[in-house]
């Protein structure tokens, strides 16, 4: 049985990621990249689907864990009756795809056990394992090879690789597990100490560039590191999460593969980077975007693979039981074929903010925009599946129309100074005004009091908070204020927001899910806009309190069960931590100090 979602910590090397539980079990790892078949899949099944546990044999009296400084090097300290020791877990930054685990004795003597269960193809394939020398073994299955190098001897037991050893104060033992193609010669092991110091230094150097944001600086840096770890360094693509099929309702079917690059999620991540001054990441993402969306604008997708791949066919893995028996376990995502109008607004907003932030205009971006904007103009009146990717049919979602307005509003603002550019900008402004008129006529409830989820609907949707956050209408517009009241009355659950009521909304799936964390961050942002800073701060503190002890959040939270739900860690949630902290920090600064506050 896997651990609770909130019990996991993240390891990453900007190519792939691993999840390690509090008891020292590494239960999820995809190699050589985020969306590759998992070599450890116990998270979605059991230990026979692959895991790597390293922990004391004797009863643990106390265990504590933290990241070393502002890095992704995880330190877990164990105290037993006979001694105290720590385990350092890391994925070294660089070209290699490996996990290093270091055991160091701190006091007395501690007995440890290592249990390595290597499986390929999401836990289905048992590899051929052989020793290359007394301290090195190879595991091969088809195109993949894992190499384990250790400073203690190991032996086979029932298709597991195990070891028992003792570490005394001042002693160190290490394990290095690396991936490589099986047809290539075995690559030499890295220098463990050098890899540790280099990785600590590179993560710390990245975090040191983060500006001070007042009382929430530590949480912001941790979320920034988490988002950086979810960036695929070779291409600049940003994944929505590092896992697949962690359930939005335990035992339910709302289990999706998030190891891809949604334009929406990646754009919001990009904005968080830029808000903190990280424009190198913004430039890399923009290059990824322009490569991925190049071609016929009608073929532009809402999501892509890490290198811009378009074929993300969805299928299930029946041999995996699912997290706490939540079926199906999915790979790929059929939402790649959906129409979601909001992505055009998200991308346009990001491009506008990048230019305002000083990022030079890309020569190809204007040409692509001249192709995409006429296409958006031709489709914005049509229904879509919306931001929440419903599978119950298309609707005229109000949020989608609002974000289509954002696309034309931002494009108008970016228009150049030539006569042709001015005419184009005026046309974009005309289309934006037309969209706003329609939304304000058709997007309200039957009595015209407040906005609703979709034209003709009476349902409420947390995405309507974006009406104020995007500038579509002022936050103090009476229609928006009444919408906010409806959201608070109908979607707040134990002080946290649901994205919509899945019991009454027809989204094509079995009802039931947790509160959607990014929506609560949006609510706090709206409170800031309205000058309700005390309420914003109280909600933000409540959300920070949901983070686990190493500062990570999943997509959703179940207030009744007091547990995280959905894929983990979730970019959306960590974007919320950053942006709301910035909004609160700016609100707390006196007007004369706002430039200094950022």
Tell me about this structure.
The chain has 598 residues and is α+β, with helices and mostly antiparallel strands. The chain has a domain at 5-203: putative glycoside hydrolase family protein from bacillus halodurans (Beta-galactosidase, Chain A, domain 5, Distorted Sandwich). 33% of the residues lie in helices and 22% in strands. The protein has 14 helices and 26 strands. It has helices at residues 192-208, 217-229, 263-275, 279-292, 342-356, 363-379, 398-414, 419-442, 466-469, 478-491, 517-529, 533-544, 571-588, 594-597, and strands at 9-12, 17-20, 25-30, 38-40, 51-56, 62-67, 74-79, 83-90, 97-117, 128-133, 136-141, 144-150, 155-157, 160-168, 172-181, 231-232, 237-238, 261-262, 303-304, 315-316, 330-331, 492-493, 496-497, 515-516, 556-558, 563-565. The strands form six sheets. The protein has a 15-stranded antiparallel β-sheet that branches. A three-stranded antiparallel β-sheet has the order 24-25-26. α7 (398-414) packs antiparallel against α8. The longest helix has 24 residues, at 419-442. The chain is globular and about 75 Å long. Mean pLDDT is 92; it is low at 594-598. Keywords: Glycosidase, Hydrolase. This is Trehalase. InterPro entries: 6-hairpin_glycosidase_sf, 6hp_glycosidase-like_sf, GH15-like, Trehalase-like_N. GO terms for molecular function: alpha,alpha-trehalase activity. Residues 217-581 form the GH15-like domain.
């Amino acid at each position: 049985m896997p651990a609770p979602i909130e019990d996991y910590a993240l390891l990453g090397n900007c190519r792939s990621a691993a999840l390690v539980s509090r008891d020292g079990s590494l239960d999820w790892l995809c190699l050589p990249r985020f969306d590759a078949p998992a070599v450890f899949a116990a998270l979605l099944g059991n230990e026979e689907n692959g895991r790597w546990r390293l922990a004391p044999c004797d009863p643990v009296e106390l265990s504590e864990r933290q990241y070393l400084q502002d890095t992704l090097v995880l330190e877990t300290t164990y105290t037993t009756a006979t001694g105290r020791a720590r385990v350092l877990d890391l994925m070294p930054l660089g070209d290699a795809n490996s996990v290093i685990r270091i055991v160091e004795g701190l006091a007395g003597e501690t007995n440890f056990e290592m249990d390595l269960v290597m499986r390929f193809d999401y836990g289905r394939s048992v590899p051929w394992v052989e020793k290359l020398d007394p301290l090195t073994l190879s595991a091969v299955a088809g195109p993949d090879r894992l190499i384990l190098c250790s400073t203690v001897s190991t032996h086979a037991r029932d298709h597991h690789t195990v070891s028992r050893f003792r570490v005394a104060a001042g002693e160190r033992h290490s394990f290095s597990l690396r991936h490589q193609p099986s047809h290539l010669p075995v690559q030499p092991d890295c220098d463990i100490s050098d890899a540790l110091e280099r990785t600590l230094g590179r993560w710390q150097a990245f975090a040191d560039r983060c500006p001070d944001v007042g009382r929430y600086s530590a949480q912001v840096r941790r979320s920034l590191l988490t988002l950086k770890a979810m960036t695929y360094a070779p291409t600049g693509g940003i994944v929505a999460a590092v896992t697949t099929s962690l359930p939005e309702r335990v035992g339910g079917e709302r289990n999706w593969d998030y190891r891809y690059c949604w334009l929406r999620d990646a754009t919001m991540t990009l904005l968080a980077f830029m808000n903190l001054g990280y424009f190198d990441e913004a430039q890399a993402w923009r290059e990824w975007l322009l490569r991925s969306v190049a071609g016929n604008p009608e073929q532009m997708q809402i999501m892509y693979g890490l290198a811009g791949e378009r074929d993300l066919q969805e299928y299930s893995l029946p041999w995996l039981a699912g997290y706490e028996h939540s079926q199906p376990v999915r790979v790929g995502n059929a939402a790649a074929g959906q129409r979601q109008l909001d992505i055009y607004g998200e991308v346009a907003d990001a491009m506008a903010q990048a230019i305002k932030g000083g990022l030079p205009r890309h020569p190809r971006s204007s040409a692509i925009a001249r192709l995409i904007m006429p296409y958006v103009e031709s489709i914005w009146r049509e229904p879509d599946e919306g931001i929440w990717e419903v599978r119950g049919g298309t609707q005229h979602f109000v949020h989608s129309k609002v974000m289509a307005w954002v696309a034309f509003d931002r494009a108008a603002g970016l228009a150049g100074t030539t006569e042709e550019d001015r005419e184009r900008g005026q046309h974009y402004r005309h289309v934006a005004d037309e969209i706003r008129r329609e939304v304000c006529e058709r997007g309200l409830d039957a009595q015209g009091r407040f906005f609703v989820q979709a034209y003709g609907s009476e349902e409420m949707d947390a995405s309507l908070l974006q009406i104020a956050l995007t500038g579509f209408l002022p936050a103090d517009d009476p229609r928006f204020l009444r919408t906010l009241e409806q959201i608070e009355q109908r979607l707040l659950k134990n002080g946290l927001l649901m994205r919509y009521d899945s019991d009454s909304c027809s989204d094509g799936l079995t009802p039931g899910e947790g509160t959607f964390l990014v929506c609560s961050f949006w609510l706090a942002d709206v409170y800031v806009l309205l000058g309700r800073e005390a309420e914003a701060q109280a909600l933000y503190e409540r959300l920070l309190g949901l983070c686990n002890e190493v500062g990570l959040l999943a997509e959703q939270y179940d207030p009744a069960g007091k547990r995280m739900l959905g894929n983990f860690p979730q970019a959306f949630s960590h974007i919320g931590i950053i942006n709301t902290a910035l909004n609160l920090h700016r609100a707390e600064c006196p007007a004369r100090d706002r430039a200094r506050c950022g």
